[in-house]
Amino acid sequence: MAAGAISVPLEVYRFDPAHDPAPRYDRYTVELEPHVPVLSALLKVRAEIDPTLTLRYSCRSAICGSCALQINSKSRLACETPVGPEIERHGRIVVEPMRNQPVLRDLVVDQGPFWHQYDRIDPHLRPDPAHPMPVDAPTSMSPEQVERFKETPRCIACAACFSACPAVEADPTFPGPMALAKLYRFVVDPRDGTTQDRLVRIQTEGLWLCLRCHLCTEACPKDVRPSERIRDLKEMAIAVQGATERGSRHAVGFKENIRVAGTLNETRLVRQTDGVVGMVGQLGQGLRIWRKKPELLHRPKPIQGQAEVDQIYEALDDAKGGP
Amino acid sequence: MLRHEVVVVGAGLAGQRAALAAIEAGRDVALLTKLHPLRSHSGAAQGGINAAVGAEDSVDTHIFDTVKGSDYLGDQDAIEFFCREAGPTVVEMEHFGTIFSRGPDGSLARRPFGGAHFPRTIYAADRTGLALLQALWERLGGEHLTLYEEWDLLRLIVRDGRVQGVVAFDRRRGTFEEIAAKAVVLATGPAGRIYARTTNAHSCTGDGIALAYEAGAALKDMEFVQFHPTALLESGILITEGARGEGGLLKNASGDRFMATYAPHVLELASRDVVSRAIVTEIGAGRGFSGPYGGYVHLELMHLGREKIESRLQEICDFARHFAGIDPVTQPIPVYPAQHYMMGGIGTDAKGATNVRGLYAAGEAACVSIHGANRLGGNSLLETLVFGKQAGLAAAAYADTAAAPEMHASDLDDATGPLRAWSAKPDGEDPSALRAEMQATMEQYVGIYRDEAGLLEGIRRIRALRARFGNVRVVDRSQVYNLNLTDALETGHMLELAEAIVVGAYARTESRGAHARTDFPKRDDAQWMRHTLASRGPEGPVLSYAPVGYTRWDPTERVY
Amino acid sequence: MLTLANLRMNDPGVRAKVDGALKPLGIEYRGTVRVKHLLRVLVEDIGIPALRAKVRRPLGGLKIGAFYGCHLLRPSDEMGWESGEEPHAFEDLLDALGAEPVAYRGRVMCCGFPIQFVKPETASRIAGRQIADAQDHGAHAMATPCPLCHISLDAYQNEASRAVGRPLAMPVFHLPQVVGLALGASPEELGLARHLVPTEPALARISAPART
Ligand SMILES: Cc1cc2nc3c(=O)[nH]c(=O)nc-3n(C[C@H](O)[C@H](O)[C@H](O)COP(=O)(O)OP(=O)(O)OC[C@H]3O[C@@H](n4cnc5c(N)ncnc54)[C@H](O)[C@@H]3O)c2cc1C
Ligand code: FES
């Protein structure tokens, strides 16, 4: 045992669908220094206690994206998560496979759903035939243009974000954080000639299903910040196409609402998002709420100083060069 | 049975580039890989890729630096071709979408690297390998390609002197599969896990090299193994030269800057092999630190100050904090030299062809040889792309005219019989224990310094381990993702290669590049300016020698 | 949200734009506003011990699933407060009020509200998952500091129940309501009758005697 080692109790999800009727949790205890990553703990179990424990790993340096799993319910890279703080906080380490991808065995999941979403966003550079790349020379790109990619080139496709995302969990049509961050990478690439098409297409293919919960940004080991890039995509989509979808109409309607009254008018917002026909669908709900909270559905009086609010909007519109 | 014209094994940069070339040549191509392509070890390369594109630089200087770096064991004709292809290759990767770092004028940014006259290493922040791998996969993924993902190559089927196909293992379903192929390209990457201390990923087990060897291909220059002086203690994770470039100091246990003894002028900035040897000498003389992970020295950055460390050495900082629990702002980083790169590999010509018809190889698994006795940083990423493409083209051309392959009914059973026997045993050797013993043996006897007595002991021990491997046992009975089985497979492969390395090292009675014999400290051009070729015989490797390709650079002493 | 807006105001470009728009009105943003959520004020400025001392009607016997809401926590590096995935302030507070906090994964998840107007079925499924999770871990009620989470979890609980295909009957309190209850305010004062999911079953669980 190395100096300063602590005792690390592990509870590891075990399941071989071909042999086991149900998943179980196996307990192991290993002695390790606190800075040692969970991956080393699992490999120690494999080498010294149970060689049948199954997981994906390769680089052990947070670059190959193989070893994402759940550590005490958080989606993390096993090779980059030290045991010490987990033990301090939870007294043990529960290790489970990632979510939102079916388990093949133990900690290994079938990444099919993840790669399917990645393929859906057309992850290929599509240069504009009208503007061919220079012959025998690299494209010129300023450091500022490189900056626009933000941290998206750091993505290692580990799927930790995909595992952490509640929208992915609830809706198979949502591309998920990684695919959308990858889309962003193509949209801001000056070499890509299909930026507009990409933005128009994603408006109807799941962009607006992002919940802005930022769980992806918490989980991402590379600080790609997918939720923030999705926000950028939304802004860019509205800029190229206008508010054509329920999601974008809601966003724009929200803004217009404030302009008109200085406060939210829920009924009006629903009408702007869903149109009058769509609104009928919300009627039953509206009635139930109205019985308990009548003030919600009243048209709120414009606030004092509404005129000033309008003035601010005007100034901002002018700054942008027109409404 | 599955059938393809060309099967490329390995989906790192070399394999992907080969597949793309073969597809563009009109062939039906399958890509077979034990890791998802984006998880290949190429993604771990940080520093950059060489191309003499700067105004002050020239292709000739790149050629000269590479020839000299190789300690005159590189083939000069191949090196000339290689360096001429560098510019077009990097431009092509840029057009494929690689997000390179840029200079203020919009050009590709370049950084200086060891052994190069000019800053010629083009980079993408501290993740050049990842940037290239992403761009190439984004390009290749748009082509018509069959991907066998998480499949392990088990055997090459060679009959009548030519390749007929492969047998593989589908990790996820646990099934054995045959693929008939006219041509096979091996691009299975490094073999660093033969050593206990390595900067390489766990998956770098030299499978393709060993299977080519088994199938009759000759291995070239296996004794040349590059060690990187500064790897993190325990994990072996690479701390790049940048740390010393920015002013990092190496100190022994008495707090002395020991490089003053070994390279009084350049100190810490001496070349990789010099620094690695210095560290080993210090530790061997009892002047290093020692702990549960063996001897080590300190890499000190503290004097540079928090701001410089955190801005200029961001990735090193993260690595030290995440993987060693060390804060380089306030603490020295414990480092030791670790295996980093295999100059040797499957012997090929500059078209990627091996001595087996229909079998091609590229990337770190292959040996052309452009690195000779010592690789220069930034040349191996370039090698994967330049020679990956060549191998893909050559395989496609061969497959275009080759007769249909012939697989026999017995091929599958022959290849998988031994594996099934491993699982049927009531008891036997644990593959990970054998692996650990092999790693320790190679570390101790075939490491940075070598001598006759140690190499003989190494041969004896590796042979004993090979004998024990005959009784290896797999305890995991599951079909799905059986790592115990792949552990055993990989261990078997590495033992084959370990033997080729140690036997080659024993025979080469000189010191050249990364091969340092304390009993033969001088380079001996008269006798040894030639490549080692190892073929697999019943009693172990059979060595022969081949001349070095020579064009215009006469050997001189390699001093920097 | 306001915390993030405040952070963005540190960007000189954004600041110039906003000040440009405010100028005609004779207003300027000086960046002196500190944004702090009620929950944070309760645990940091008032403090757990002080709150504990003020409790009149301890919520003993009541198991509550704290439901944080996303924007209070994340992105945690910008919010600069609790862990974005493993916070404990709300549980600490509930404990001080005498209630029994329930540990469940859904407590830090999204309530689904942001896409209520985009795809109600999905929004409801998300809300349903979190409510069901709390229920499965024994919660008698949930409590949230976010008014939008409250709409999603309470007003839309019917839809949520349908979306996850199981009955849900989970009273959901606003943060000030649980504090108010423990400090002795009456259910009427707290407007508990105006919830869509009746709160009485939860109130009936409170077993500790009121302190005077
Ligand atoms: C830490 C580190 C940093 C480096 N930095 C640099 C640098 O800055 N510049 C530079 O030029 N070089 C660098 N190198 C070296 C360089 O990265 C490698 O030499 C190069 O990437 C190897 O590429 P490859 O395509 O040959 O192999 P890899 O990228 O390793 O790919 C091997 C492929 O083979 C597959 N495979 C292996 N075995 C099997 C099997 N049995 N069956 C099926 N598939 C199999 C794997 O799945 C993988 O897809 C670095 C190396 C390391 C370790
Ligand atoms: S093992 Fe590669 S990312 Fe963890």
Essential attributes:
heterotrimer; A: 323 residues; alpha+beta; Ubiquitin-like (UB roll); Fumarate Reductase Iron-sulfur Protein, Chain B, domain 2; two-stranded antiparallel sheet; 15 helices; 7 strands; globular; B: 560 residues; alpha/beta; Flavocytochrome C3, Chain A, domain 1; Methane Monooxygenase Hydroxylase, Chain G, domain 1; 7-stranded mixed beta sheet; 5-stranded mixed beta sheet; binds FE2/S2 (inorganic) cluster
Summarize the structure.
With 560 residues, chain B is of the alpha/beta class.
Secondary structure elements and their pairing?
The complex is a heterotrimer of chains A (323), B (560) and C (212).
Chain A: E1 6-14, E2 24-32, H1 38-48, E3 68-71, E4 74-77, H2 83-90, E5 93-96, E6 103-105, E7 108-109, H3 112-120, H4 143-147, H5 160-164, H6 166-170, H7 177-187, H8 195-204, H9 215-219, H10 226-241, H11 246-261, H12 266-281, H13 283-292, H14 294-297, H15 306-320
Parallel strand pairs in A: 1-5
Antiparallel strand pairs in A: 1-2, 3-4, 3-5, 6-7
Helix pairs in contact in A: 3-7, 7-10, 8-10, 11-12, 11-15
Chain B: E1 2-9, H1 13-24, E2 29-33, E3 49-50, H2 59-69, H3 76-96, E4 110-111, E5 121-122, H4 128-140, E6 146-149, E7 151-159, E8 162-170, E9 175-186, H5 207-214, E10 219-220, E11 225-232, H6 242-245, E12 249-251, H7 259-262, H8 272-284, E13 289-291, E14 294-300, H9 306-312, H10 314-324, E15 333-342, E16 345-347, E17 359-361, E18 366-367, H11 379-401, H12 411-424, H13 431-445, E19 449-450, H14 452-469, H15 483-507, E20 516-517, H16 525-528, E21 530-537, E22 540-547
Parallel strand pairs in B: 1-2, 1-9, 2-6, 9-17, 16-18, 19-20
Antiparallel strand pairs in B: 3-5, 4-5, 7-8, 8-9, 10-16, 10-21, 11-15, 12-14, 13-14, 14-15, 21-22
Helix pairs in contact in B: 1-4, 1-11, 2-3, 3-11, 5-15, 13-14, 13-15, 14-15
Chain C: H1 2-8, H2 12-22, H3 38-54, E1 63-66, H4 76-79, H5 89-96, E2 100-101, H6 120-136, E3 141-144, H7 147-155, H8 157-164, E4 172-174, H9 175-182, H10 200-205
Parallel strand pairs in C: 1-2, 1-3, 3-4
Helix pairs in contact in C: 3-5, 6-8
